[in-house]
From TrEMBL:
The keyword ATP-binding does not apply. Pathway: Protein modification; protein glycosylation. It is found in: Endomembrane system. Its EC number is 2.4.99.18. One of its GO terms (cellular component) is membrane. It is a multi-pass membrane protein. Residues 526-583 form the STT3/PglB/AglB core domain. This is dolichyl-diphosphooligosaccharide--protein glycotransferase. It comes from Allomyces macrogynus (strain ATCC 38327). InterPro entries: Oligo_trans_STT3 (IPR003674), STT3-PglB_core (IPR048999), STT3_N (IPR048307). One of its GO terms (molecular function) is metal ion binding.
Amino acid sequence: MSVLSGADTEARAMRVVILALIFAVAFSTRLFSVVRFESVIHEFDPWFNYRTTQKLVADGFYEFWNWFDERSWYPLGRVVGGTVYPGLMVTAGVIHKLLHLINFPIDIRNVCVFLAPVFSTLTSYAVYKLTAELHTRGAGLLAAGFMAIAPGYISRSVAGSYDNEGIAIFLLMYTFYLWIKAVKIGSAFYGALAAAFYFYMVSAWGGYVFITNIVPLHAFVLVLMGRFSVRLYVAYTTWYALGTLASMQIPFVGFQPIRTSEHMAAMGIFGLLQLVAVVDFIRGHVSSKHFQTLLRIFVVTVFLASVAALVALTAMGVVAPWTGRFYSLWDTSYAKKYIPIIASVSEHQPTAWPSFFFDLHALVFLFPVGVYLCMQQLKDEHVFVVIYAVFASYFAGVMVRLMLTLTPIVCVASGIAVATLLQTYAAEPAADAEVTTGGKSGTGKPAASETSKIGIRAADAKWYVAIPVVALLAIYAWHCTWVTSNAYSSPSIVLASRGHDGSQVIIDDFREAYYWLRKNTAPDARVMAWWDYGYQLAGMANRTTLVDNNTWNNTHIATVGKAMALPEDQAYDVMRALDVDYVLVIFGGLIGYSGDDINKFLWMIRIAEGVYPSEVQEAKFFTDRGEYRIDDMAPPTMRHSLLYKLSYYRFADLFGGHSPAYDRVRGTPITSKPITLHTVDEAYTTENWIVRIYQVKKPDNLGRSLKDASAFEAGTKRRVRRKRAARA
């Protein structure tokens, strides 16, 4: 007995050591950006999260909860507390508070920067617990190791990526673990814990609807398979009742769980389980003949009544219909046709096939093997894996952002696949055939824990399998490290390139421009820019913006798009109506930065046309041959648009007239005609011409049009220069 106890202790200690190493790798592999660029917030959305966290830490939770942000969506403003998922900010604020309580002084910025890497270790642990519950602890360790370095998850959890997904994936997987635990043992306690983590998930990320629909679907499939049990009833009823009530305490969610179509499946399955439980109760109190008749009448009546009630409530507006984002998951062309603001976001595009290999590498091939092994056993928990795998695979295919929800189940299934392979070839054979020691699972098949595996006796066969597996895992680790270092560790506000001698060149135009705005403009200055840059403008420049990445008001965004697409004089009227002081545009034609506004211009036009079809038409921005051009062949509508003129103003001067100005992004020379501006003045252009800022002129004091006033001033200057030349 002491020998067994010692072996168990050694195995437990070994698992702890391996998990500690996995945690260390998960944390450290996400620090490339800090080592190379410094501790800085990345991307766009994280800047809003950081700004709101600063508000929370500085003024307290009550002020944060009731904060009206007058610096965004001018002149409308935004009620921040009622339009955010506060879980991320509260988590960072609590950690900051706790660290200060133990006299560990740390700036809130560093808490935000390192929050995602810290939670990545917890995500690895959650994947370990879930996989161990599904298979073995060895499979759990493998799955945790895969998850720690998988690029599909690292892409949203590197240091500086202070976004909701940084903590949400941990909550997603731990909620699923608790759900599986609750179903396996029929525990109300674990059901309540699953509800608590579900509430945390709801407070952190809008992707909580994935849980809201996958868990009911799992319960529904089990009922269809004839596996309804008290365990399932207790687990689901506890989770749904407590989780729904808790989620409704988040102001941004409110009554959505009982009033939107996305949540109706969870409510419907809750009702179905009550119905099945009642039927199961009646079965024991009436004869078989009467029971069958009563069952048919009861089920048909309840089903028809439920469908009729849902249709009526939807028609009355009590239950909201499916949203456009939901339809875009089933019809990839829906958003482009009807909601261009959704289609304009790059992470909402369908996933290219190479992206799966780029983000998952060898796991792409191990994933279906693990799912197949689960289908062979197909216990209640394995049904969940199959459902999760099928739906996550589909959703990841139609929207690149949802690769994030696919990655965890891929790691789980791959861990099961590799563990099964290693157990088969590495373990010593206990018998020449599979021997069942007694007992069956709920499916009627021998329970996995009650069956001794067939081992492989030949040593050479073991090596033939072990060496390729180890090599494959090593290549996977190398690939993940390379992708993390080169593709996912560069903050969007700081760019890096290589000089002719191979040395690294840092391009810091964004921070340069935002710093200039902060230091050289009035505190209440209003800046018009495309919505992509709204959060960064508010966070780094601390200036009022018209639109930002929240995209809640399509009409306001369309108005900004219209201003960019209209000729200069008409755009000036729009800017004056919006009290715009400065216009900011992003231009990459000089150094080859492809994420500039000219490349986004068609989306601005499409969004504007959806609201102002009489003023903006996309067709007018193409040539007669249907080409999108910026050179001399560009149509007049393109060349006269405000965005075009602001982007290419004075661009030809850089080439000194010896050669035509050349746009390195579009790979073409620009129009040879000089570009003049009369409604705005160039205020600042960054070193590499990526960010260009213009100041909007005030109306002329003499009542002249700005075009006439500019022409008069230009003529006066020419006459003065001529007189000076004549005197000389």
